[in-house]
Amino acid sequence: MARSDDDGRPLPLRVVEGGASGADGRDEALLRAFLDGDDAAFGELFRLHAPMVQAIVRRYAPGADETRDLVQRAFLRALEAARRDLRRGGRAVPFRPWLIRLSVNLGKNHARDAARWPRAPLAAVRQVEGPDSAAEEALAREERARLLRAAVLRLPRRQREVLTLRLDAELSFAEIAAALRITENNARVHFHHAARRLRELLAGTEGEP
Amino acid sequence: MTPCREYEPLIAARVADALGPDAGARLAAHLGACSACRAEAAALSEALALAALPPPSGAAAGALEGLDRETLRAWRGRERSRAPWRRAGMGFAVAVAAAAVMVVVPALRTTPPPAPAPVSPAADAWKEPDLDALWAATALADPAASDEDVASGEVALYADEAALDALPDLSN
Description:
Chain A is mainly α. Chain A has helices spanning 19-22, 26-35, 39-57, 64-87, 95-114, 123-126, 133-153, 157-167, 173-180, 184-206. Chain A is elongated, with a radius of gyration of 19 Å. Chain B is built from nine helices and no strands. The radius of gyration of chain B is 31 Å and the shape is elongated. In chain B, α1 crosses α3 (35-51).
């Protein structure tokens, strides 16, 4: 993530494609095909949604093996739920919203159970050594980033969910709201509160040596 | 200096790159005139830039390699292990039911003392549950629900989300 400009310009976030199109029946058609034995349909579902799942769980699971495990578990659970719902009457299956919530919940549970809150994977910055002020500033900034990322995981639940889905998975507020089953405006307010908490924390650290 | 209260949510939305054009223009005009709000925007932007994760490493980019096939194998494995269990469960349930009939019918024909209740603990233990019915009957029918969803504190905390919804709409 590039450093933002000092004038408060928006972060270089984009809105990931795939949310709205999942609601038009594409995911459901793929799910039905897969459950009827078409393995290629699962491959397509995975291709469409796995990068998003990976982006969500990355904050909670820094290692590649952990990430793979969480991505797989999210898909298996979502498939299980989809099969159950399709068997019970075939109403619209919100596969992608399920994946989003499963990813957040599995990620958080993983971090909690393993008691391994992630350290910032900024090895390149950590390796900077030397007495010059630029290196010292880089280290200080890295330390502040580590503190803030730890603070993200301690945010109240909804604030954490909304903030990370926007920052990490770059989902639109509309899709975040649909996945968390809150209104879009509510999601924006949670984001605002989360950002304000982090800003207050940052202000508290900047005066320290 | 404190930022203007009515512009604070707009500032956060702008930093998240999620401000509609009308609200964006309104905020831009305000930021041009209000140094406190400009400072707030810069501080929020800096905090979020620090809180964001760095770009994925090369290893992370390959983390999904082959995982679709692996997940498919895991799914098929579950299916295979599930099917024999169902068949065995059904077969055993039939056998237990037949045994129960053999116990109950003679017992009804005999004279007192009455036979013990013809309920076999094994029959209960091996009766295959209707998982769909059980699932539907639980409060966790949402498949993506976590243990956090049922924590009473959270439920109470978000009971007033309707109040949050009453705040101004920032999306346009």
